[in-house]
Structure prediction request, 131 residues.
Amino acid sequence: MRTLLNVLWLVLCGFWMAIGYAVAGVVCFVFIITIPFGLASFRIASYALWPFGREVVQRGDAGAASAIGNVIWFVVAGIWLAIGHAVSGVALCLTVIGIPLGIASFKMIPVSLLPLGREIVPSYQVFHAAR
Prediction:
């Protein structure tokens, strides 16, 4: 089922959202000091391509630098990417078959707003860590 949802996601909105993250990552790599933002953007781009079966978790070692970086990311790119997820989520929820995809798009809004200090892991790791 995850594979089917991932393929539908990729065709309907994942490809375009990944391009948005990749463009943000390339822009961040142009300015040398923002390379950590670019790395986070590329990490989220891979998540935007194939989100089902993966989860976003908070990293335990994230500190004040991540918080400051998240504020900068929010202003520069995060708000625009989050708007993209919100718009695509609403559009996907207009059809019955798109509702799970729309919910997945809404789940990606927090990581698009504040990506630093988060990690994308397979879902089974989150399940085992909770035990």
